[in-house]
Each structure stands twice: as structure tokens, then as C-alpha cells.
Amino acid sequence: MKWSLKELNQASIEPISFNETLDLSSDLKELRPDLIDVKPVKVDGLFSVDELGVLGYYKVSCDLVLPSTRSFEPVEITLNFDVTEHYLSHHQPDMSEFENTDVVIILEDDILDLNKVIEDNILLQIPMQVLSAKEASSDQPLPNGDDWDVLTEDSKRENRTQTIDPRFAKLKDFFSEE
Fold first, then answer.
1. Do 93 and 159 fall into the same domain?
2. Residue 1 DSSP code
3. Structural domain of residue 99, as residue ranges?
4. How many domains does the chain have?
5. pLDDT surpasses 80 at 44
6. Do residues 47 and 2 touch, judged by C-beta distance below 8 A?
7. Is residue 157 one of the residues assigned to a domain?
8. Distance CA 10, CA 152 (A)
9. Within this chain, do residues 12 and 46 fall inside the same structural domain, yes or no?
10. CB atoms closer than 10 angstroms to residue 105
11. Are the beta carbons of 30 and 43 closer than 8 angstroms?
């Protein structure tokens, strides 16, 4: 779905609302080759015009299948998130009215391609660590082998506090309270 900024600006009285189901599977797999499957993406949103430009607000939900970051087994994750972005023409990129926290997109050709916007936001929402339910449970032992172990952040913190580097052992008494 594409809109021109001129078309969106003409709708200044009534917001343009939409409810779409997008098939972004091939584009997302091209952008992120480790994606195993992408179910149809549901997008419900609107565009409104204010003194700053065009404001887009969307609710996005989709199901993705990714490899586990630990075992490479397929894991299905569900993403539900909101997107709020401002769109400006490249002819008038005055950013002085916006807050530092506002997301402002300057459109090079004054065409808003909803598919590209949603693809980018889906890629931003994919978590860094994807684990199956079995792997996420705390009673599941972590993999290990000869001379290597997988450590969690918590176990790394515990390990740091328990062991003292022998090179610094003499320094522990240097700042004694006496």
C-alpha cells in the first residue's frame, strides 16, 4: 500500500484509517535470511494531518518462526506492537518542532510505502534472544563440552564476584578501613 504525501495532506479534516493484512514473507526473508516463516501481518492504523505534518499510528501483529539462538530449533514468536511516526517531505525537512523522542521519517520521493514501514518495524521488534519454551525454563541445563560452557548473564555476575584475579589479590587490603 502506497500513499503520496499530497494525498495524505488533502485528508486533513478526517483521518485516513485502514485495516489490512499484508503478505511480507518474501521481503522479510530477503532482509533477514534466518527467518523460517512469516505469517500474514495484520495492520490496523490511521494517518492524520497536523501542524507538524503527517502522523501515522499503527497497531501491528504478526507471527514469525525463527531459529532458537541456542539450539537452532524452530521457535514461533508473536509480535504485537504500536508504531507512531511523523512523515515529512524532503522539500521541507524542518525538524525544529519535534521532540528528541519523536520518530520522524523524511520521504525522499514523497511516497509513503506502508509495506516498507511495517517491514522495518518488524525487524526492529525481533528479540535478540529467541528460545523455545523448553530452553527458557530454568531447570533446563545449558549445553557444555570439553573446555567450554554456556554462561547466562546471572552466572557470569556470580562468577565475577566469587573469583578474584590472583594478580590483584594483594590489592584487596590496600584500602582497608584502618
1. no
2. -
3. 2-134
4. 2
5. yes
6. no
7. yes
8. 54
9. yes
10. 15
11. no
